[in-house]
Predict the 3D structure of the following.
Amino acid sequence: MRKSVYLLLAACAAIVAVPARADAVRDALIELAKCADIADAAARLKCFDAAAPRAKSALAAPADKSKEAVTPETFGLPSPAKPVQKTEDFGKPPPEPQGITEITSTVLEFAKTPYGKAVFILDNGQVWRQLDADSTNVLPAPPGTKMKVTVEVGFFGSYNLTIEGRNGLIKVTRLK
């Protein structure tokens, strides 16, 4: 007798847990679609009135940012770390970002840090700084000319900056 009670409780818990993991927005749309099929106007309105608050709360819930692609505004900024799901994936570099893999812009302001590392302020508002480990000596653009740069994704989440008309690349990190 006790075994059957425990099995019944386990089955009920499984049935209740499955809908809890379902997508809230999808559930709200299904509920609204069911209301649309009701022929009686008063009953249909009552159904819509009951479903509307759940639909609003499902739409107001924050979206999952981990599935978003890289945009020009977020290019070069660190993404939130995702927990490793498998033991064999521990220590591996994160997968390549989806979306933009490079940007091209004009340098509004060029500066050097006290340690001689280059700082690039781009016309799109981004600020990039040469890594301390990079020994490239970056010279400013000649007076009266604009420096055009391309920043692209490198290996293992690094970023490479190239200056139009010059050879080589500069390892950089985004400050802003």
